[in-house]
Amino acid sequence: MTFNPNELVLEKIRAVEEYDPSTKELTGRYTQIEEPSLKTSADGATVTDAMGAEIVTFYNAQTGTFSFTNSLFSLDLAASQFGSTKEIADENNKIIVPVSETITIGSDHTAVLKYVPVGIAGAEVKYAKVINENNTFGKTYEVAATAGDDVFTIDAATKTLTFPDDVSGRVFVQYEREAENAVRVTKKSDGIPEVKTLLIHAIFHDVCNPNLVYAGIISIPRAQINPEAVEISLTTEGKHAAEYKLQKAYCDEASKLFDIIISED
Asked: How many CB atoms lie within 10 A of CB 159?
């Protein structure tokens, strides 16, 4: 019997995958899909007679959009929206990580940092600000090569700051460290999202027999993420939304925007 479905029950979009159109390399995969929407549009040019009555409308420049909201914040999706790539650190390519730390000064008038600081030798930590008992900021001390009344010294290798004898309590410091277990996504003002190929994986069910499950794929050969209004909610309840603009390849005579493919197995 020929497999020829018409009306189906769409259970969910289970994944959206991004690929480099040239190399076919996977560049992003999103699996917590909410509110997916596929739309098409066209520019209409209406032909009228001498009385203004419409005769026919010609539709040109057909385009489309695909949008969705990812339930979780995605670094890969952010990189795509920013027109950049996710940097992955290792032992040979470490990422600089800013650190803000509150530390307690010991009885020997030293404070030990959590990480080894990096930066200008002898000034890896430039300032230390005393925290008063009521949690307000007090005096600010600046790093120096030698000890003094209003300065502190640093030994980066041992992560140690040494303060004058009359300084006690807690201090707030800010510095940078190197990390080999970190990733970074950068947004630059001239970053333009690349054109990608999308595969949208869906699960369908037969209307008459819901136990029959069909695999569906929406294949989009050319899609460019829309960078005009990227908003990443920085709250626990926040979502990560994205929209792609679909366009045919300019030199493609087939004028394909996307395929919807349903498979029985």
From this structure: 19
